[in-house]
């Protein structure tokens, strides 16, 4: 007979791993249930972490004490900081990863957390007592009781895989789907829907002619996701495994190639067998990561589409063809591939495919990710309609934190939109809902100047430390960074240069000369001048991270201050509470749509109400007047 647990986490993808790790490290006794222990933290799609806005999320997870940043660093084969040509609010870290090493590293960390037990089985039901979750049931006939359950089922809920006219049940290729849970949740009153995602063919790297492609190298001085040294963390946990990263001595390159009109013509011959165009797929696909057939249909004026040829790891010849996601028949995929420059002789390890799966619209959740219908039941990841490893991982982290706190009688942790991209994501899901796979972008964050990837530790590590997740070492680094940054700013303000020194520096910058002494701080405000230029003038002994922080705070001081003032203004609305049982139908001044949306989404504050689609400023004004009464 199985013992009783504090928390059962269903699914060991990115959300499930972070959920299990956070809850267990905070003190809960956790059971992690997965259908296959060999695919823990499987990178089901592209072998990469981070990217636009997603990199900020990984930094935030790490700052709170989550593990995705450490795993990404130890398994990286390439690192790039995207959007360097733009302002620092847009800089986004991204790593290319060794797919097998990534999964191995996650399992290693989880197995070194003493409060986690593992079970290979399929969960097909929940034990529910009076709308309060009490455990799970499995396909092997087990009934396991617990105080809370976190569902992180990914694409496995009634998943169906499509390749041309062929389809089969499955959550990933060659892995069976999960059945039973959706039907039970519907019976309990939950609303569900269908979404679709896809993946491209995997190729044999030995058959690719890279000389016909553009090489994309990693950064010359690669950074990391984690604020800790991943190698040191892994080595401290094991004396018999050699953990290392080859940076900066070696990185693997990615490669760029393009489709062409001949490729498009071949792909079009398979449209009559495409499950999307014949109506066999009912689920909505991701708007911002369309299949190749979607691209040539929606963007018919485009003569070519960019493709990224990405290595899958240090010790494998397998290659991922990013940008060529498809569910067309295998023979059509093969013919089209061979017309792409560099892929004329390419062999496929496996074809691309689409997968359709169940999800539960996230307006049915509290901001803690606990469901509104069933107490102590939490949803995290693609079950909530998101797409991407990073979006899933941060939900898992927050669900694990809040499940642990709930069963211990503590208030939930809810991050604000002005506090973290994680707060933006969860707020978007619950106040706006989603009927298509949700993906994070910097444009979704109205306070993105404050939510930069470089200050995630300053924003969130003190909170992570208070929760018992971020270590004393992490907090020490934050305090050190704050002190060093302040010292650096004082150095900039106090160090004044003679006119000839300044003019010597400015001569190569094509900017006007000066005739009097000037402080480094004033000089740094000129867009042509960087901190690197000023370091020749008696620099303070501080870290590169602190120097960068000081430069950003100096150059963008006005913008940062303006955004802080906007946050304070918005917080006055944000914190005005709305009772859970509030009857919106009583306010006749509200539009019919507003009454319907507010009754459906049940916002807890006026700020949340203001972000619901269909609720206009006039509705918020009417609601504000009523609440003040």
In short, what is this structure?
With 629 residues, the protein is an alpha+beta fold. It has 21 helices and 22 strands. The protein folds into 4 domains: 5-47 and 98-200 and 359-439, 3-Layer(bba) Sandwich (FAD/NAD(P)-binding domain); 202-218 and 253-351, Elongation Factor Tu (Ef-tu), domain 3; 472-562, Orthogonal Bundle (Arc Repressor Mutant, subunit A), CATH 1.10.10; 575-628, DNA polymerase, domain 1.
Commentary on this structure:
- The protein is an alpha+beta fold and 629 residues long.
- It folds into four domains: 5-47 and 98-200 and 359-439, FAD/NAD(P)-binding domain; 202-218 and 253-351, Beta Barrel (Elongation Factor Tu (Ef-tu), domain 3); 472-562, tRNA uridine 5-carboxymethylaminomethyl modification enzyme MnmG/GidA (Arc Repressor Mutant, subunit A); 575-628, DNA polymerase, domain 1 (Orthogonal Bundle).
- 35% of the residues lie in helices and 17% in strands.
- The protein has 21 helices and 22 strands.
- Strands 1, 2, 6, 7, 8, 9 and 20 form a seven-stranded mixed β-sheet that branches.
- Helix 2 (54-64) packs parallel to helix 10 (389-407), helix 2 packs parallel to helix 12 (456-467) and helix 7 (261-268) runs antiparallel to helix 9 (330-337).
- The radius of gyration is 26 Å and the shape is globular.
- The N and C termini lie far apart (57 Å).
- The mean pLDDT is 92.
Number of beta strands:
22
Low-confidence stretches: none
- Count of individual helical segments: 21
Residue share in β-strands: 15-25%
Coarse shape: globular
